[in-house]
Design brief:
mainly alpha; Arc Repressor Mutant, subunit A; disordered C terminus; DNA-binding; Myb_TF_plants; nucleus
Length: 330
DNA sequence: AAATCGCGCAACCGCAGATGT
DNA sequence: AACATCTGCGGTTGCGCGATT
């Protein structure tokens, strides 16, 4: 029953990733696509465990990630969603396409939790709709669907302290998420790597696993993780894969948040980014699994959530909660 | 100017679900 | 159907940096 650690101690590097490692990882994924993480360390020569590689990619290197500077809207959304979903960061992250669950989790723990505890009363810090201890994490969507009544009851309780919460919408969110929208969180790694389109040369080959280290060491530019991230941003952007998140404006500025030092770096657009005919399209990378049809509700949800003064106070939470359980238009 | 403290973030750990054999 | 492996998720920790004393 005891599962061996994903990576044995010996020979496995831990701690912060270096830009060189980042580039190696990026290069590999660029060629083969994400997935099959088990093979990544072996095939790249990285002295990292597969888990670490995956984490690094999903939380940091993946294109389309916005870092830092949470907007007020995002903040609100997180608070609301946390109140409904509890600490299901991945689920919450599915509503913030450019944010990672780790990022949201950190932001919650460092900013919002404290904020709510001190200022807004501690009610919100104790989410009402936490799943019961026995619940199975990966199936929260289904649970939300089947146990919607339970959630409604919990919400009713929660509404007392959280008077600015929009219950019905959140309920709908949950319902929307349930059918599977939220599953998209987990970077569609459905073994997407296997079918890598034999990415011939282009940019990717320039930074093949063997190259980057030397390049980074000798090149005139400074290699930073931000560069890599930004580079990927542009890359994915060119692919038209991002489509911008509906409710969260300004995706492009993402990696550039405050990191002016990185601007000196010029990848020349050629260093890595496969401007034309790039090898792997990361359409499924940027919080992908939410198809456009299902993203529609998102903007609606967000506008609904953020439009506090206009709508919410017109509705009595109790009556809303008493509405028919599953009559959601989604 | 130096030391201490607190905060924020990146990364790790372990569990559990999903998938493949 | 059972087992093994892989992947995803949430909680926690450790380090670096800035603020304060």
């Amino acid at each position: 029953m005891v599962r061996p650690p994903c990576c044995d101690k010996e020979g496995v590097k831990k701690g912060p990733w270096t830009p060189e490692e980042d580039l190696v990882l990026v290069s590999y994924i660029q060629e083969h696509g994400p997935g099959n993480w088990r093979a990544v360390p072996a095939r790249t020569g990285l002295m990292r465990c597969s888990k670490s590689c995956r984490l690094r990619w999903t939380n940091y290197l993946r294109p389309g990630i916005k870092r830092g500077n949470f907007t007020e809207q995002e903040e609100k959304l997180i608070i609301h969603l946390q109140a409904l979903l509890g600490n299901r960061w991945a689920a919450i992250a599915s509503y913030l396409p450019e944010r990672t669950d780790n990022d949201i989790k950190n932001y919650w723990n460092t900013h919002l939790k404290r904020k709510l505890q001190s200022g807004g009363g501690d009610g919100a810090a104790k989410p009402p709709a936490h799943r019961p201890p026995s619940s199975s994490k990966g199936q929260w969507e289904r649970r939300l669907q089947t146990d919607i009544n339970l959630a409604r009851r919990a919400l009713r309780e929660a509404l007392t302290p959280l008077d600015d919460l929009k219950p019905t919408q959140l309920q709908r969110d949950a319902a929307v998420d349930a059918p599977g929208a939220g599953v998209g969180v987990g970077v569609g790694v459905g073994d997407g790597g296997g079918d890598s389109p034999a990415s011939s040369s282009s940019g990717a080959s320039q930074c093949s696993p063997s190259a980057p280290t030397a390049a980074a060491a000798a090149g005139p530019f400074v290699l930073t993780t931000e560069n890599i991230s930004r580079m990927l941003d542009g890359w994915a952007g060119r692919k038209g894969a991002r489509g911008g998140s509906p409710g969260t404006p300004g995706g492009a500025e993402s990696a550039s948040t405050g990191s002016s030092d990185a601007s000196e770096v010029s990848y020349g657009g050629a260093a890595v980014a496969p401007a034309a005919g790039g090898p792997v399209v990361f359409e499924y990378e940027t919080k992908p699994a939410v198809p456009p049809s299902q993203q529609m509700p998102l903007s609606a949800i967000e506008s609904w959530l953020f439009d506090d003064d206009n709508h919410f106070h017109h509705v009595q939470s109790a009556s809303l909660l008493d509405a028919a359980p599953m009559d959601y238009p989604f």
